[in-house]
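Following up on my earlier message about arginine. Here are the inputs again, as you asked, copied directly from the submission form:
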Amino acid sequence: MNCTREIAKILTQITPLSQNELELFIIPAPSPDLGDWSFPCFRLSKQLKKSPTQIAIDLAVILEKDRPELIHKAEAVNGYLNFYLNRKAFIESVLSAVITQKENYGKSDMGEGKTIPIDYSSPNIARHFHVGHLVTTILGHALYNIFNFLGYRAVGVNYLGDWGTQFGKLITAYKRWGSKERIETNGIDALTELYVRFHKEAETDICLNDEARAWMLKMQEGDQEALGLWKWFCEISMQEYQRIYSRLGITFESYRGESYYNDKLDAVVEELREKNLLQKSEGAMIVDLSEYKMPPCLILRSDGGSLYTTRDIATALDRKQTYNFYKSLYVTALEQNLHFAQWMKVIELMGYEWAKDLIHIPYGMVNFEEGKLSTRHGNVIKMDDLLNEAVSRALVIIEEKNPLLPDKEMVAEQVGIGAVIFNQLYNNRIKDVMFSWDRMISFEGETGPYVQYTAARANSVLEKSTLNLSIEIDFSLLCDDYSYDVVKLLDAFPDRILEVAEKYEPFIISRYLISLAQAFNKFYHNNAILSDDLPLSAARTVLTRCVRNILKCGLGLLGISAPNKM
Ligand code: ARG
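Thanks, got it. Here's what our run produced:
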């Protein structure tokens, strides 16, 4: 049962507003002594030609009569209409839904038949998987899980940066200073070394950049040696990426990267020309976007080389054809805002009505004490190192709190990685994220480990309980404020998920999980769950089971596992 929806439904009979509008106006009461929900009547005053106070009084009478099983009391206070729900009925309906629907609670079929490719992670080959890609990977994966949960067919697309000038540089560096053995043993570390060295030496050796351009040209012309090295660099890089994805529990359905579109770029240029969108400018080909207050979109460089933008246009056309998508999402840093705005505008100018379904999902930066991260100067923070650090810190805490825990290493892996993901998804995505180890790994506070720990605590209660849960539950035993607060949150879960999908903001779930964990911990500290009072124990055990399931489900949607014991 969704109470605001139910209340709104009743109110439509007696107010000029629609159910949707009414739903938005119904707000949680500011304090428990003012009821559960509150409806401000001020907005209706003009339309109904009555004072808000009078409207509230009139509505109170009607509401109390209309659905006594839902609303126990409706009260007019200073132009607000305050409702007290019939707790027992409400609790019963919520908990029965959570129990009977099991892992389907909160799911929806709204996405049935609709495909949403999500372009995320998409690292640039031959460079370490670094913290810059952490965010797109974590955020994209959460969105992927959430859209699937809502019945869409989400498709994880890894648009590998596997083509571009960096390969010319890398081949040049390899030919000059590289060794096959070193790359075979050190993998991407050795490639990064070469890349960094190239940039350092290019500061003084002006030939290097020309050489790199020449190699790039060879790659474009299909030169065997150049392509062989390119392919090898890609394979070496993929080994590292795959290891990280499997640690994070991520798989992609498609790895069509930038190189896949090499032979599809001419057609894009041709189409733009046919549609009269192309213009010459200083030797390059552009689409003029001044009318839309944007710099021109570069389609072909003066040397004939194609660009990131042109490739994205080709990619979008290909995705439309492959998936006939309902929406197509791109998760990247907000530094790329202009790039996405430009090429998406070009798609619109090409006359594709589905341009409106292309959605860029930007996010802010991750900050460490060292400052902005970059590969160029070699001070990159590697994803592997970061995850290892998180896991070893988690292990220290586990050793301290629960030295006898079985499978400590495995739990530490789940907790450490969970902490990183949760920290990343705890604020709206545009906000820069600060990496503070002590805060994010802590088992207390607003952290992933705190939610995991609460789920494990609920789980251990359930393991201890020997009750036969098929007995009839007396839901009136859960009417105390602690239990009731928990139930209200359980009721809100499905709506929160919808909100995430609407706003592309997984932090709504993270915040929700913290509230639920806090409410459950209050309940746990104030109410003995297992006691000699069997009916009471049974009712509280059922509530505990519901909480455990929803915490686990919510964590799962964020991409975090919930260990049974911690
Ligand atoms: N490889 C790019 C980068 O690391 C991200 C690609 C994003 N996706 C896209 N279709 N442009 O910055």
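One observation from looking it over: Residues 116 and 430 are 22 Å apart (CA to CA). Hope that helps, and feel free to reply on this thread.
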